[in-house]
Design a protein that fits this description.
Layout: H1 7-20, H2 32-70, H3 76-85, H4 92-101, H5 103-113
Length: about 110
């Protein structure tokens, strides 16, 4: 009895991976084995970097808050300590946005916590 091969599913699987590899350079976009490896690696990077993105944005917000606070003679840690002590319920994302795009509002917060 001859071996049964599911060519339809095999082709569909390969087409799916090659579609994901669209836009890659060279053989990575059209050779099955190379594209499969490239797509697998890309998926690993995307999984890892979804977690890392949260860390990098938090670091960016802290940098912006620190720069805004230092314009008013405080360090980041002093500013955040006083924000927490005064029960101001603004997170780092909002504070960083205020420090960058609305310095008057940020200055009002600094004056309130001093």
């Amino acid at each position: 009895m001859p071996r049964s091969v599911n060519s339809v599913a095999k082709r569909a699987r390969r087409k799916k991976v090659l579609k994901q590899a669209k836009g890659y350079f060279g053989r990575r976009k059209n050779v099955w084995t190379v594209a499969k490896n490239a797509v697998d690696k890309a998926m690993q990077y995307s999984y890892r970097d979804r977690k890392a993105k949260k860390r990098t944005f938090r670091a960016l917000w802290i940098t912006r808050i620190n720069a805004g606070a230092r314009l008013h003679g405080m360090s980041y840690s002093q500013f955040m300590g006083k924000v927490k002590a005064n029960n101001i319920e603004l997170n780092r994302k909002v504070l960083a946005d205020l420090a960058m795009n609305n310095p008057e509002a940020f200055q009002a917060i600094v004056e309130k916590v001093k």
